[in-house]
Amino acid sequence: MFDLDLWREIFQSINKNRTRSILAGFTVAFAIMLFAILFGIANGLQNTFTEAFVDDANNAIFIRAGRTTKAYKGLQAGRQIQFKNEDFDYIKDDFADGIEYITARIYKGVDASFRNEKNNYTVRAVHPDHQYLENTIMKEGRYINQRDLEERTKVVVIGRLVEEDLFLKTKALGKYINLSGIQYKIVGVFTDKGGDNEERLIYMPVSTAQQVYGNNDHLDQINLTYKPTMNHDQAISFGLGIEKKLKQRFTVAKSDQRAIRVFNMASQTKGVNQMMTGLGVIILVIGFGTLIAGIVGISNIMIFVVRERTKEIGIRKALGAKPVAIVRMILIESIIVTALAGYLGLLIGMGVLEWVGPSLEEFFIKDPAVSTSLVIGATVTLIIAGSLAGYLPAKRASRIKPIVALRAD
Amino acid sequence: MLKINQLHKSYPIGDSSLHVLKGIDLHVESGEMVAIMGSSGSGKSTLLNIIGMLDEADSGEYTLDNVEIKNLTEKKAAVYRNKFLGFIFQSFNLINYKNALENVALPLYYQGLNRKQRQEKGKFHLEKVGLLEWAEHLPSELSGGQKQRVAIARALAADPKLLLADEPTGALDTKTSYEIMEFLQQLNDEGKTLLIVTHEEDIAEMCKRVVRLRDGIIMEDKKVEQVRASQYV
User: Which of A132, A242, B103, B118 lies most in the core, judged by the most C-beta atoms within 10 Å?
Assistant: First the structure.
């Protein structure tokens, strides 16, 4: 039921009592504005965190070998464990169910040169799957493929900065680069979000490196990703399973921490997740805190409004206003003021975020923003709280005898 | 029109209570103009408030226009006040952010009349008190006499059976007081029933009947020769 006269009464009351309306509105607008800004900043912090951990696949497991630290089954401590191709194949076959991508790594430092330009770089000899493990993005050409691996071709994929360093302004793709005296054909150029060091790498097929550097089948490291369908606990036990099997394979004591090192991102992810949860809790506390401050503010103002209008209420009652009409008038007025002010606060808050957002990036706050629905939710909460807070005094005011109200000069 | 029998009212003061009205009997016929006199504390305002349903009696009977007024809910009291009664207060009690016309039309809003009807009726009554050209003015822009006339127009707007005036001239100078009384006399001449609470003898003499209260009982209730206010204006 739309009662035009009621609305006219209410808008007149709001309009003619501007100070009161503006004061009431200010509290709400301020609360909503703070809510939006604080929430936005917290969201910005969260964005920074999310981004910091997305370089490498976050379901990765890195396996490295070292020297044993404990004597075990008649073998001395200090024995060097060396991974070989057969170990790679063993893991690949035995854990095929849980593995998404798998690659080995061999590291070699090289002097690279092209014409007159020279520099030192690290070569990573890898399997083709490495591209997905490291989130390598091909800028030009292709990555190492299976054929390279089988034919031990002398090809390399170089980082963007290697191209920049050695080839200056020219294209590197298709040219030959000299790595410690051997010529390799450049089949691809890549970029990596992991930073400059990642872009100063050179990738080559693992088989090529084994043949060229030492003519053996040694591997430095084995990296793999588990299937993303695994939950956190499954991922942890998957990593532990690999560790256990490898320790048996190399006859290493179970408690030996150095000989076989399995680094599981899942345990790292857990820390990050806890951090995120912590941030979430902080966000919630901030949000509720601001809202409660707003609710207290609007409640006080409603009590003040009703007190200020006691005499007017008395007059209206003497003229025949029913209690219901009084309550309705006060409540709708407070709802309108709260809603308008809340909307204003939302606009200001979002405007401020938009305005200062870009300059906050150096404080680890990225893209601070808050969803409209959340802020509208907060405004609605304030409206409901304001109505409840206004209802009680309004109800009481509607019950006082007009004579008492009229006496209140 | 108005029948009151054995009306009692007391107010609690701390542990004890103050017996303000100690058995009032009062009958008022339609068309009367009654002054209720008494010194302060005699209970005259309390009596008027009870008649005006702004306050409730402890015991006794009260019948207004053949309707027994008792056990009123707030809602019912609101309807009766709107239908039967028009109030004129000493301090005018206009709503300060509404202009004269809106103040006059307010009781009509609570009667549920539409805007056009309210405007028409409001203007009619404002014209009656001679303030039509002041319709758009706020109370703060009016003189005391004008404010009281707006209040009278407002009391008249709902076409009540009984007009209750609580010291209607209390806040006005003598000349303006007489102007207001002249106007109230005119209303009475037209057939309106008026009940006026006052402590001023000259105002009481301008009514047709004077009821004197002292310490919560009626001391004297007599018809008087009405002094016309017009001779002083």
Answer: B103
Contact between residue A105 and residue A120 where contact means Cβ atoms under 8 Å apart:
no
- CA-nearest of A36, A265, A280 to A133 is A265
Contacts of A398 in chain B (CB under 8 A): 74
Please count the residue pairs, one from chain A and one from chain B, whose beta carbons lie less than 8 angstroms apart. 71
Shortest CB distance from B55 goes to which of A5, A13, A403? A403
ipTM of this complex prediction, to 2 decimal places? 0.88
B window 14-53, beta carbon within 8 A of A:
49, 52
Task: Provide the greatest CA pair distance for chain A.
Answer: 107
Token pair of A231, please?
Answer: 């939950």
| CA-wise closest residue to B90 among B185, B177, B189, B12 | B177
Please judge whether B106 and A5 are an interchain contact, meaning their C-beta atoms are less than 8 angstroms apart.
Answer: no
Residue A333, min C-alpha distance to chain B (Å)? 15
* Cα torsion angle, A296, A301, A307, A313, sign: negative
Q: What is the pTM (predicted TM-score) of this model? A: 0.65
CB contact under 8 A, A317 and B78: yes
DSSP per-residue string spanning B101-149:
HHHHHHHHHHHT--HHHHHHHHHHHHHHTT-GGGTT--GGGS-HHHHHH
| Residue A53 pLDDT grade (very low, low, confident, very high; cuts 50, 70, 90) | low
Q: What domains lie within chain B, and their CATH numbers?
A: 29-56+73-231 (3.40.50.300)
> How far off is chain A from B108, nearest CA to CA, in Å?
9
Among the partner residues A319, A398, A402, nearest to B82 by beta-carbon distance? A319
pLDDT tens-digit map of A365-391: 666 677 777 777 877 887 787 777 778
Q: β-strand B2-13 against B59-64: which pairing, if any?
A: antiparallel
Half-sphere exposure of A400 (CA within 13 A, CB side): 22
